[in-house]
Amino acid sequence: MVTVLARLRSFLASRSARAKTPGPSTRQHNLFEAAATYVTASIEDDDDRLEEAAGWVAPDALVFGVNQLACRAVVALARERNEPVEVVARGLLGLPGAQPAGSN
Predict the structure, then answer these.
(1) Residue 96 has what DSSP assignment?
(2) For 19-41, what is each residue's pLDDT tens digit?
(3) Do 74 and 85 contact (CB within 8 A), yes or no?
(4) What is the SS3 assignment for 13-49?
(5) In angstroms, rounded to a whole number, what is the distance separating the alpha carbons of residues 98 and 19?
(6) Backbone angles phi, psi at 23, to 5 degrees
(7) Phi-psi region for residue 43, left (φ > 0), alpha (ψ -120 to 50) or beta?
(8) How many Cα neighbours within 13 Å face the side chain of 46?
(9) Three-state DSSP class for residue 16
(10) Contact 100, 83 (CB under 8 A)
(11) pLDDT of residue 86
(12) What's the pTM value of the predicted model, to 2 decimals?
């Protein structure tokens, strides 16, 4: 997840530096679709798809969408594991304190 966010920051910085003219689009994409595609492309190292997804919505909308995706994923994983959300989030990031209470 950290890699995805780092790539997002890097891409958004380079995107704001260059002016992009909108090309013909067959349909509108919502920010959640853009976020899901962006994260998937980042995981798969698909730079073309990464750039395509980032062009579907405004940079701030993409950041919001990626944040929402991360939050929802952590909540779903916490429910699946029957663990507190903070424990799961810290565990995914490799931070101390990632053990459920009472598992000393």
Answers:
(1) S
(2) 454 555 566 889 999 999 999 99
(3) yes
(4) HHHHHCCCCCCCCCCCCCHHHHHHHHHHHHHCCCHHH
(5) 43
(6) -95, 175
(7) alpha
(8) 12
(9) helix
(10) yes
(11) 95
(12) 0.68
